[in-house]
Amino acid sequence: MGNMQRKQFFISKVIPYTILTIIGILFIIPLLWMILASFDSHASLKAALPQQWTLGNFRSVLTNPSNIQSFVNGVILSLGQSILVVILAGLAAYPLSRYQLKYKRPFMYTILFSTGLPITAVMVPVYELFVHFHLQDSIIWTMIFLTASSLPYAIWIMKNFMDSVPLELEEAAWVDGGSILQTLSRIVMPLMLPGVFTVGIFTFSGSWGNFFVPFILIQTPSKLPASVSIYQFFGQYGMVQYGQLAAFSFIYTIPAVLLYILSQRFMSQGFNFSGGTKG
After folding, report:
1. Cα atoms in the 13 Å half-sphere on the side-chain side of 28
2. For residue 269, what is the DSSP state?
3. How much is the mean pLDDT over the chain?
4. The pTM is what?
5. What CA–CA distance (Å, rounded) separates 253 from 71?
6. Is the CB of residue 208 less than 8 Å from the CB of residue 3?
7. Which of the residues in the chain have pLDDT under 50?
8. How many Å apart are CA 79 and CA 200, to the nearest integer?
């Protein structure tokens, strides 16, 4: 192997795999600490095998009613937001995909700009709005605000997926007497399930891990989702309960992982309309 080949091999193989290995280690170490600490009754910041494996941390977390309530609140908030985003984004994306609108391009650019707007930039006026109309400390109104903030990217993704559905399939349904709403719900949406699940999973994951918005808009402890109530393990009497914190975090990841597993089959299907418009 000459010097040139050795240099190309170093640049194309060694450097990328070294960088990926370092990134992988940095990602795995916190997960490894979480798993080990959740089974350790004397857990600390150090990632080490427990001297005595125990389920006491999980038992303490799951027998606390406030923790269960926080998980229920988180599921209500995240699942409700995901359902609303999928429905509203589907309805908004349909005319953008199917009709030639006069201000369609500027509107799409506006949506694209909105996807990059950090939510922290609007939280002060949003909080003042909530206080003025007495909407704060409400899971429902927090869900509606999170839904509105998630719509720009959801509409953008839905529109791109909807563009891939052949218009001929809808025209055939219209000939058979179907309305626009019927063709959208019975023809278009079932054919773009990968897009629906993509939007739903991204929305659920973003809401499930959202700490900032519920922390600002909800004040009653019994209404807080799990993403905020996890803060209870920090600083109690100057101590951090690492074992319970790790067990809580372990349980906290389960809904998102289950959602990925259950929807993987639909997301991996892709589009297959090769025979849908023949005949």
Report:
1. 6
2. T
3. 84
4. 0.81
5. 11
6. no
7. 271, 274-276, 278-279
8. 9
